[in-house]
Write a structure and sequence with these properties.
With 113 residues, the chain is mostly loops. It contains one helix and two strands. The protein has a domain at 39-108: Pectate Lyase C-like, CATH 2.160.20. The chain is 14% helix and 5% strand.
Length: 113
Amino acid sequence: MRTRLLLTVSAMLMLVSCGGSSKSAPETTVAPRVVNGYTIAPGANLRNANFTRMDLSGANLSGANLTGAYLVFTNLSGANLSNANLSFADVTGANLVGANLTNTIMPDGTIHP
């Protein structure tokens, strides 16, 4: 019995020391990054920001205000733009492949479904 208990305690210590847990891992969050002097983050106010030819692939810009922003030839592939406002933004040549545009206000004022 004592040997079995020691093995169990030893196994638990190994699990803890390896960072293991019986619970699921907590969701990780990515720290906001700064691009061209602007903080890229959900809900950010990026009105009239110039991101021409920048790489914003995979960025989380959900709910961001991008009214009048310059996104000319900007890589927004895989970016989360859900609920963002792109009114009057220049998206000429922007790469939006795989971007989440759910409920996004587009440059022409329409709301993307």
